[in-house]
Every structure is written in structure tokens, then in C-alpha cells.
Amino acid sequence: MKLCSTPAIAAKIARGILKKRFPATKFSVRANAYALTLSVSWDDGVMKEHVTQAIEWLEKDFVWENQEYNNSLYITYERNLSPERKAIIHNRLVDEKIDTEWFGEFRSTFLRSAERRLIQEFVLSDGIK
User: Which ranges carry the Large polyvalent protein associated domain (predicted)?
Assistant: First the structure.
């Protein structure tokens, strides 16, 4: 028998998974029962792709602890950069003589790319242990 999952149940499961998988990052997981959504947000640390891979399966029917759940849920993800992290990334772009003024609509793409390079060089942490 399938149980009907609520956003509150999905939020509880998501919190546990994110805390276990990414212990260095503090997440905010908010459930909205009326809109059938989860809002997941965090500062710095883990990239959005890793968080999405960890919990996107909650949007569909799923099995958790030997119980089948019927689910129809939408998850939104929001990763924010702290001013300190933005400054480090901006300084790297300036060092590379990249003009950050003309980024326009591509700004987030350039910032993510520069941030990934800094993570690969161990200048910044990716929040994954």
C-alpha cells in the first residue's frame, strides 16, 4: 500500500539526507503544503548539482524505510554566496584580467566557473567531506 507523502515528510527526509551527506553545510529546508513544494537554500559550500542529485528523487514516488510513498512535489534550490566568497572569486577574476563589468546575463556562469577553479586548487572548500 502506498502512503501519501506530504511536503513535511519529504522535508524531514531531505534534511536528514543533506545533513548526513554534506555535514559542513547548513541547509534551510522549508515545506509548503499548499503549493506542494520544498524550498532548499544554503550559503557557500556544496554546488547546486550535488544537492540536486542527493534529493531530486523526492519529487517522484519513492520507497523510504520499506514504505512506499506517493509523491507529487516540486523542489526549488537556492545557493547563495557570502560576501567573503564573492570577494575571493572576484579577486581571482581580476587577477586573471577578466573584466567583470560586461558579464551581464552570463555573470552567474562566469562566477561558477571561477569558483570551480578555486575549489580544484583548494583555495575554497566545496563543502563535501
Answer: 10-75
Q: How many residues does the chain have?
A: 129
Q: Which residues of 81-117 are buried (b: 16+ CB within 10 A; e: fewer)?
A: beeebeebbeebbeeeeeeeeeeeeeeeebbbebbee
* Domains of the chain as residue ranges with CATH: 2-80 (3.30.300), 83-120 (no CATH)
Pick left, alpha or beta for residue 61 (phi over 0 → left; psi -120 to 50 → alpha; otherwise beta).
Answer: beta
User: Which of 85, 89, 84 minimizes the C-alpha distance to 107?
Assistant: 89
Residue 79: name the closest of 21, 127, 8, 20 by CA: 127
Look at residue 45 and give its three-state secondary structure: coil
